[in-house]
Amino acid sequence: MADAESIHTEYTCKYNKMPPILLLLILLLHFPTTFSLVPLLQPSVTWSLRMDFTPSSLRTSKGSLSPITTRSFDVVFKPEEGYEPPQGRIVGDGVEGTYLLSEDPEDRKDGLWVWGLFKDPLYPFCLVKLQVEKKEIPGVDDDEFIPPMTVYAKVPHAMEKNEDNVREVKLSPSPLCVRVGEKFNADPIGLAKVEIQEEKEIGKVTFFQPRPS
């Protein structure tokens, strides 16, 4: 009977002679979960974030139309433990903000916040608020740039089962908005003011290509 050392030597020689692609296929077949990723709103998953602005919505610090109409970032979701509905921070290089899983804030009907009490809460939206840092514009004066801005999005959110019957997060493209405030008198003589904010659509936001952080 062969001893342990000779068996180890035999298998080492066997796999060392294999073409790398064949060895990779063997590993994928024997350990599929090692190479799979379940998209989740967790720090272990990095998402690509792209903001596509409408041509007239993005202006420079000097008021001219921006030659840049797309901004892209890599971000991670960092949930805050113990909150219901789930919420947390979005962190990336050049952008940061917050998120909140929610029902439709404009149509709450029968108080669907109770969805969070069930085993598989639905939460059809991920409410996002992002602070975007300023962006230098190549080929122009240093004092002209894309100013920092705060944007908002109501991102469609779903939990769906993949081919391995594992639930994963799906985030769909959604309108990208800014909030514009307008002040009104709160009393007849104008001693008190109230500001009402409305959302103005300026483009589209997309979270895509989830991958290991």
Main β-sheet, spatial strand arrangement: 1-2-3-4-5-8-10-11
Q: So what's the overall shape?
A: globular
Rounded mean pLDDT is 80
Beta-strand percentage range: 35-45%
Please give the alpha-carbon distance between the first and last residues.
46 Å
Q: Provide the low-confidence segments as ranges.
A: 1-15, 31-36
The helix/strand series, from N terminus to C terminus, equals HHEEEEEEEEEEE
List the total number of helices: 2
Q: What is the count of β-strands? A: 11
Helix content: 10-25%
Largest sheet: 8 strands, antiparallel, barrel
Helices and strands: which structural class?
Answer: mainly beta
* Cα Rg: 25 Å
What does this structure look like?
The protein is mostly beta strands and 213 residues long. 11% of the residues lie in helices and 45% in strands. It has 2 helices and 11 strands; from the N terminus they run ααβββββββββββ. It has helices at residues 4-16, 20-30, and strands at 45-53, 70-79, 87-92, 95-102, 125-132, 135-136, 145-146, 149-161, 167-171, 174-185, 193-212. The strands form 2 sheets. The protein has an 8-stranded antiparallel barrel with strand order 1-2-3-4-5-8-10-11. It has a two-stranded antiparallel sheet with strand order 6-7. A hairpin with a 7-residue loop joins β2 (70-79) and β3 (87-92). The radius of gyration is 25 Å and the shape is globular. The model is unreliable at 1-15 and 31-36 (pLDDT under 50).
